[in-house]
Protein: Potassium channel domain-containing protein
Organism: Clytia hemisphaerica
Amino acid sequence: MSILTFITILGWIQDSHQQAEYYLPKCSIRYETRHYYYNQLSADEIHQHQPLCNKTFKVAYADFPPYVFQDEKGNVKGLIPIFFQKIFNETCCLGQGMKFEYLPEKTHKQLVMDQHNYSIAADLAIPIPNFRDVDYYTGMYYSTILYNDHVDVAGVLEPREPADKMTSLFKSLIQTWPLLLMTVAMAIGSGSIVWILDNKTNNEQFPEHFPDGMAEGIWWAFVSMTTVGYGDRTPSFWAARLFAVVWIFIGVTFFGMYLGTITSVMTTNLQIDKEFQIQNKKIGVLSWTNAPKQVVIVMEGFVEEYNTPTEMIEALKQDQIDGIALDSFMMDYYMSQIKEAKPDVEIQTRGKTFKTGIGFVTNSEKIRNLITGFYGLNMDNIIQVWSGDIWKKAIEESIMSNKTGGGIWNEKFTRVNKNNKETLELFTYKHPSFLICLVSMFVTSCVCVLINQTVTRCKRKRQDVSMESQGVILKSIAK
Ligand SMILES: *[C@@H]1O[C@H](CO)[C@@H](O)[C@H](O)[C@H]1NC(C)=O
Ligand SMILES: *[C@@H]1O[C@H](CO)[C@@H](O)[C@H](O)[C@H]1NC(C)=O
Ligand SMILES: *[C@@H]1O[C@H](CO)[C@@H](O)[C@H](O)[C@H]1NC(C)=O
Ligand SMILES: *[C@@H]1O[C@H](CO)[C@@H](O)[C@H](O)[C@H]1NC(C)=O
């Protein structure tokens, strides 16, 4: 936490040394520091540096809540318009931003067809599903706005096979390895410190000799951390004892965390005793989306394509299909409608596989250049915008407007295996603290060994010297 704050402050200081003029043409101002620049430049200056900020763009859209939809007052809302406002207007143009003029609503097919006809093509067309890292969509320039590769499946759950349960249990145990490794690394580091602090005064329990003494220290650290405390090795020097107190606190906490994680993973895993099997089932997907389709194919289900969610939900109600697969944003939105159509259905997250996203296409080279550069430079901004409550509020808003969806946002329809994932994500090896912990513990141990070697060598030299001098004295006596 404090490290993150520190990095943010560092970033802010670094930003503030540069001028807004430098960032504007590239549209590369950081989302969290945008307010710093708000009063630095006048509207005219901003428009001068970034001419696209003074333009009005025509946007063609297909009604797809929660990505984009029209409310009953005729305003176009949704996740993508919010993104345009937050990123293009507030960040890229410092609030003096581009205006978006929305064309009348179209079907998704029409949207793409019209975009290919240069005489009627809009500046931007949304929403377009595509792979995340590609720059083209059927010959047009494409940019991703939102990652949507979490796929949810709605279907009637069936009991899980016991063998299947065991496999997933072991899998989750193996997934806790980063935390285990961190705990072990810390025990090794602390064991080394205790050994180096105590081996002068407590040579019997913690020998000075390198691998033996250190091994005793590590053994002691493990025994203390697990609160087993055999007491066969006990530090006696005051500094070693002081450190021991600190280590016992930290070690016990860490070890407790490891046990807690395993327990929670195991309980959630055992609780999921029902699951929706995709294999050999007919699953409805939207014809123009790709992530849900791929998940169904990979899991050996049969894909049934529909043009609108409403048709798909009707088919589920009539038992023409066994389940519905949607990306998690859309599932959040349609969940209550699906539940209404078929009450015994449950929602399950079933896979995050392919790198897919939702974005826009444009025929304009200028916009494309701006966005391509911008996207590369602003990955953090994009994640920041979506990591807050923004998307949730947008989905709630879309549901409240009663446009296509309906029903009321219902927190009760949470996904079955969500908790489990969150626990595991807490201790992923991708988190900087993982690497920091391993490296610092390795360095600590190395430093301890180094100190030990140096001290031993010095001692030996001194002994040699004193032996020599003794020899000289003996010789002189003999003479
Ligand atoms: C921005 O647009 C307004 C009106 O469209 C115009 O008056 C102004 O000169 C433009 N500013 C720049 C810097 O192009
Ligand atoms: C841009 O953002 C500012 C600040 O939120 C807002 O006042 C302004 O109306 C927005 N402009 C456009 C064109 O959306
Ligand atoms: C393009 O749009 C124009 C105007 O609507 C229309 O007349 C023309 O037939 C379209 N061309 C194609 C290839 O669809
Ligand atoms: C949406 O529907 C609910 C119940 O069907 C109703 O209470 C609410 O007023 C509607 N919202 C709007 C904005 O029309």
Q: What stands out?
A: The first strand starts at residue 56 and ends at 61.
